[in-house]
Amino acid sequence: MPAPEPAPTVKSAMRTLDILELLARQERALSASEISVTLGIPVSSLSYLLTTLLDRSYLARERRSYRLGPAIARFSPAAAEPRLAERVAPIVRAISRDLNETVGFFVLRGFELESLASENGLQALRYALEVGQRAPLHAFAAGKALLATFPEKELKRYFRTATRDAYTPTTITAEADLRAALDEVRRTGIARTREEYTPGIAGIGRAAFIDGKPVGAFSFALPTGRLTAEVERQVVRLLARAAALLAGEKKNGGSG
């Protein structure tokens, strides 16, 4: 006796999972026709599923093809992240106290940032950052620090697919300008923003590595009025100390 046909809702769920599993196995984006032929899903049904997955960011579009989107990361956080959060939290607190300014540690979520640890400065005028807060890569110092670690293939995909909104008149959105900024980050190890996301706020960030692999980025966010040359030197020194501590190296130096 043949097995009963799945109910429509069950069939849609199975097809949705089939689409996600297919794209997870691929090293390139697939067109709708390729997905349809491979999975045997009629184009009319596939169009509805793809649109829904795009709307929820589980898929991203590359011209007329599809790949997994940033929302997929919600279901597959790195197994080491709870321990990473425990490792970075005391470092974030320590360097924040040294200058009484807001500090965060950010990790990648697709082509976005997410704050894994944060410590807000206690001064009356400060930038407030919460754990779990999402942010765009191009407009945050931590984002630029991490973009500078991307291999060229991934960087090309970022420029091809990621939305880069202009949050302020000084936000860098053009590929050529952002690439020039990333070249400077690679040269110095330090990423900077000045009123690119929030008016009156400057950011200074540095990527952090464990066993030679980038795992996130530390960054300071402070009002531009307090960012003197001396404060910037202290921030750069503290970021270097934070990165070294996370990497397991010994780094001397405290507040100046």
Kindly describe this structure.
A hairpin with a 2-residue loop joins strand 8 (201-210) and strand 9 (213-223). Helix content is 42%, strand content 21%. By secondary structure, it is of the alpha+beta class. The longest helix is centred in the middle third of the chain and has 19 residues, at 81-99. The protein folds into two domains: 8-75, Orthogonal Bundle (Arc Repressor Mutant, subunit A), CATH 1.10.10; 81-247, Beta-Lactamase, CATH 3.30.450.40. The N and C termini lie far apart (80 Å). It is built from eight helices and nine strands. It has a six-stranded antiparallel β-sheet with strand order 6-5-4-9-8-7, sandwiched between helices. Strands 1-3-2 form a three-stranded antiparallel β-sheet. Helix 4 (81-99) packs antiparallel against helix 8 (229-247).
Note the main attributes of this structure:
disordered C terminus, elongated, 3-stranded antiparallel β-sheet, 8 helices, 2 domains, 256 residues, 6-stranded antiparallel β-sheet, single chain, alpha+beta, Arc Repressor Mutant, subunit A, Beta-Lactamase
